Amino acid sequence: MVGVSDDRPPSPAPPAARESGGQPVLSLALASMMEEVHAHSGAVYLLGADPPLLEMAVMAGLPRAFAAPWERVALHAPIPVADAVRERRLVWVGDGEEMARRYPRVAVVLPYPFALVALPVATESTTYGAVFLTWPGTRPAELSDREREQLTAACARLALRLERATAASLPIQPEPDLLAAPVVGGVPGTLGSLEAVRMVGRLPYGLCSLDLHGRVGFANPAAAELMDIPVSRLLGTHLWTSVPWLNDPVYEDRYRAALLSQQTTSFVALRPPGDWLSFRLYPTRTGLSVRISRARGVSRPGPAEPVPDEAAPPRLVTISQVVSLTGALSEAVGVRDVVQLIADEIAPTVGSQGLIVLASRAGRLHVLGHRGYPDPFTAERFDGTPLTERIPSAQVLRTGVPAFFESWDQLERLYPARRGTHDGFAAWAFLPLIASGRTVGTCVLAYERPHSFTTEERAILTSLAGLVAQALDRALIYDAKHRLAHGLQEALLPHSLPELSGIEAAARYLPATRGMDIGGDFYDLVPARGGAAAVIGDVQGHNVTAAGLMGQVRTAVRAYTAVGQTPEEVVRSTNRLLIDLGTELFASALYLRLDPGRGRAVLARAGHPPPLLRRPDGRVGVLEVPGGPLLGIDPSAEYPRTEVALAPGSLLVLYTDGLVESPDVDFEDALADLAHRLSEAGDLALDELADHLVRHEADAGERLDDIALMLLRARD
Fold it and tell me: Which residue among 157, 287, 327, 561 sits deepest, i.e. has the most Cβ atoms within 10 Å of its Cβ?
């Protein structure tokens, strides 16, 4: 068993968190909800504004350490309370299987049978926070209509109270957690009658009681004898503190499982040097009863015996924090994400105030990111330092051996080159980031005060560095591919549009936000006999293959234009090229020949959205251009030509489907909206108009498809 409890002593509830009668608002509301629906545990979160985070204000029924990874929850996090607030609805998870399917990060940290409900605490206009409640896995798999109504009404009442408090300028603050008081004693009355105590004392097996934090409230003589610890040293202490050989994550898991699932659990532990003991845990809502006896027939090796140290500090990182960090690192995409996770998840846990992450590039140190340094130069001065330099960050990256310095004097004595380069910190841990046997970087954790690194702490920091290294290795590869993709995209698209007589042009390109930010959308504008030729198209896919094929199509269109082919011939020739290339990808295209001197444009279309035309009087319409199938499907396909009038001042809008298609919007409605915006803003300068037409999509957090836009205006 390891320390999972939150040892912070309860503090009085802040006055602002109480009603006029002196009662704590959040605690009473939570207790009432739990009582109404017979929930086992729960918590209330308050929503902070900057940044928008849900912060746990009070918890009931279980130690807060059980929910430690989620004491502060970002609104975008894949967590039930975040979903409840973001979507303003009740979220019900009926069992462990559903939790694993919908919220795997929660299920990995708490792999026990339990049910959970999360609800927003909100009025019609304002969201104040959220509530979650849990039940053991033995309850019915569905939440009844009556329970839904009770919980929804209770959250609405709490929201109204918070609204009144806000109107009265009374800040709502966290309150003490609602946990049963530990039964610590040793006098006969703690268990009832004197005779009952005598009876328990005569039993041949051990009995002890633990509160929700794992503190011992009672132990009979047999328990003390079996564990070889006097009763006086057990009472009021954590079992894993008084019994060092129980300080093991395996036993912590059984303890957590019993409390959360409210089901009996058990484990077998080795009491050095060779005695096996069986522990059976019987949970209630106020704690656990533990039955201890000698185990029979145990022959397998047990966990290693820890070095006894009664004055040892609490465990630096709990198993739940490690699992939560692992889940978070698995979701990190780029190097920036990894650096941010180290700053948010690891540095605060280990008490570090400063952070630098470095890698090597061309035999020199490269600073990937840093946090906690008031003067950025202090951290960034190491960028470009040769790996041969005798400084700890370079040596750790070269050798893969961690280094710990408990004071500035110690660092300066071992590395005289650091004299005169004090960074304002007083202790440092230089951790090699080793992935697949390669040192991919160095993580420097800095401390504001001198810090003594115990053997256990050094081992934990080195282990955490291993988790970070795997994520950083993936992130470095992703960022390299990302740079390659952007370089390829920039090489394949025109850097600027040519200035042509009688034609004004502007274009924009936005990649999809999924994948590698690269796609197959393209556009081009080239001089042609009598005016210009323009093309816009979309090759299927958002990857390097699509981008490469897009480059071939664009080059082909230019070549066919240069030899004087008509619009319909250019599209037919490009179609045959795609088929001859044997690619499995298809493409859409819209090609047009502009002749501003004669006031006309000739178009040919292959499965592409129709263009919009804004006439000089401001009227906007969709050009009905007959077309053929997508390129690359039918070698005999025909693509008819269409001629339209193009009076001076007319504006053609060519676009790809990413601008007007989304899963929840009808295509016709989106096209009508684009036409409306074009009608209102069409007199703007073309660059301003192009920005205006893509602004909504550019600001969107997620784009499922690439967007290409080209504007062509006939000059007077």
Answer: 561
**Distance of alpha carbon 609 from alpha carbon 622, whole angstroms:** 10
CA atoms within 13 A on the CB side of 52: 10
Give the number of C-alpha atoms closer than 13 A to the C-alpha of residue 347, restricted to the C-beta side: 24
Give the pLDDT confidence of 187-201 residue by residue, as tens digits: 434 444 555 566 666
pLDDT at 419 over 70: no
Task: For residue 219, give the amino acid letter.
Answer: A
User: Judging by DSSP bridges, how do beta strands 600-606 and 627-628 pair with one another?
Assistant: parallel
DSSP 341-360: HIIIIIHHHHT--EEEEEEE
Structure tokens that stand for 662 in this block: 């989304």
Judged by average pLDDT, the poorest of 82-86, 362-366, 543-547 is 543-547
Q: Are 115 and 99 in contact (CB under 8 A)?
A: no
Q: All domains of the chain, ordered by start, with CATH?
A: 25-168 (3.30.450.40), 197-294 (3.30.450.20), 334-483 (3.30.450.40), 493-714 (3.60.40.10)
Tokens of 669: 């409605």
The mean predicted confidence, pLDDT, of the chain is 82
What is the rounded CA–CA span in Å between residue 160 and residue 693? Answer: 42
Assign residue 192 a region (left: φ > 0; alpha: ψ between -120 and 50; beta: otherwise).
left
The total number of residues written for the chain in this structure: 716
In this structure, what are the phi and psi dihedrals at residue 353, rounded to the nearest 5 degrees?
-110, -15
Report field, pTM of the whole predicted structure over 0.85: no
DSSP string for 252-315: HHHHHHHHHH-S-EEEEEEETTTEEEEEEEEEETTEEEEEEEE-SS--S--PPPPPP-TTPPPP
| Structural Rg of the chain based on CA atoms | 34
At 484-532, the pLDDT tens digits run: 766 766 677 787 888 888 899 999 988 765 555 566 788 999 998 878 9
- Looking at residue 572, the DSSP 8-state letter turns out to be H
Residue 401's φ and ψ, nearest 5 degrees, are -105, 125
